[in-house]
């Protein structure tokens, strides 16, 4: 693998994400990159594809770009072509960027490539545990959402109606997404690493309600 292309991608991503919301900034990318490499050690995969996809996966998140789903693909394709990456590598990296998101989880083809499974696990691990909690409250603050509303009982597997009623509180995001991630991990390493992080969120929620209710 050419070390050069990884280095130039790091520089490109750091520059692009200058000033990004703290949950989706260069440091999120760096953690996902490191986690991806750690998971990849236990899998047979193309490491160059894994690393490039980890580095580029949030280069233009639709949430921060008026819902534009195509922008990240366009930017990544242009960048990788400018670096003379091989076409099959480019295609695999773009496939991962397109399919990694939690909200598109039902659309992924059966038997997703191992490289997608690895980067998706890494991205999901960074969404749970202590870091996941911090990122979630940071995002909620960024959006000026309520942390919690005592009259709305958050629950797992909510319908669209229930979600609307949840008012998008940050605590609701745990039930809407974060607490589901442990069971969606693809790799054995991912599953193992998710355990601790999941349990930490459960203790956090318990303590949160305890303090909120002053009981
Ligand atoms: P994905 O990239 O897997 O589709 P998102 O970008 O929606 O996932 O979420 C990434 C992280 O952003 C979440 O794990 C969470 O920390 C934060 N986030 C996204 N939506 C919300 C929300 N409605 N409330 C609080 N945090 C959120
Ligand atoms: Ni991400």
Please supply descriptive tags for the structure shown above.
single chain, Cyclin A, domain 1, 10 helices, globular, binds adenosine-5'-diphosphate, binds nickel (II) ion
Secondary structure blueprint with pairings:
Elements: H1 3-16, H2 26-40, H3 47-56, H4 71-82, H5 87-99, H6 114-125, H7 129-142, H8 160-166, H9 170-176, H10 188-212
Helix pairs in contact: 1-3, 2-3, 2-6, 3-5, 3-6, 4-5, 5-6, 6-10
CATH architecture of the largest domain: Orthogonal Bundle
Strand content: under 5%
Q: What characteristic shape results from the CA principal axes?
A: globular
For the secondary structure, the number of strands is 0
Overall pLDDT, averaged? 93
Question: Class of the largest domain in CATH?
Answer: Mainly Alpha
Distance between the termini: 57 Å
CATH-assigned homologous superfamily of the largest domain: HD-domain/PDEase-like
Q: Which compounds are bound in this model?
A: adenosine-5'-diphosphate, nickel (II) ion
Rounded to an integer in angstroms, the radius of gyration calculated over CA atoms is: 18 Å
CATH topology of the largest domain: Cyclin A, domain 1
Low-pLDDT stretches are none
Q: How many discrete domains?
A: 2
Order of H and E elements? HHHHHHHHHH
Helix content range: 55-70%
SS-derived structural category:
mainly alpha
* Total helical segments: 10
């Amino acid at each position: 693998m050419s070390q050069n292309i990884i280095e130039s991608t790091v520089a490109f991503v750091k520059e692009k994400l200058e000033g990004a919301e703290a949950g989706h900034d260069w440091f999120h990318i760096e953690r996902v990159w490191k986690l991806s490499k750690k998971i990849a050690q236990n899998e047979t995969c193309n490491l160059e594809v894994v690393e490039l996809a980890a580095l580029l996966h949030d280069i233009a998140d639709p949430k921060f770009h008026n819902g534009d789903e195509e922008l990240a693909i366009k930017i990544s394709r242009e960048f990788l072509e400018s670096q003379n990456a091989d076409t099959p590598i480019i295609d695999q990296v773009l496939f991962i960027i397109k399919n990694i998101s939690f909200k598109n989880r039902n659309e992924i083809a059966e038997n997703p490539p191992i490289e997608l499974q690895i980067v998706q696990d890494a991205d999901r691990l960074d969404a749970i545990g202590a870091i996941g909690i911090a990122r979630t409250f940071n995002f909620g603050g960024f959006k000026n959402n309520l942390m919690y509303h005592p009259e709305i009982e958050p629950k797992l597997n909510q319908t669209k109606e229930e979600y609307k009623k949840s008012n998008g509180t940050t605590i609701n995001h745990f039930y809407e997404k974060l607490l589901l991630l442990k069971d969606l991990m693809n790799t054995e390493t991912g599953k193992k690493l998710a355990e601790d992080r999941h349990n930490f969120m459960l203790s956090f929620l318990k303590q949160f309600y305890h303090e909120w209710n002053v009981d």
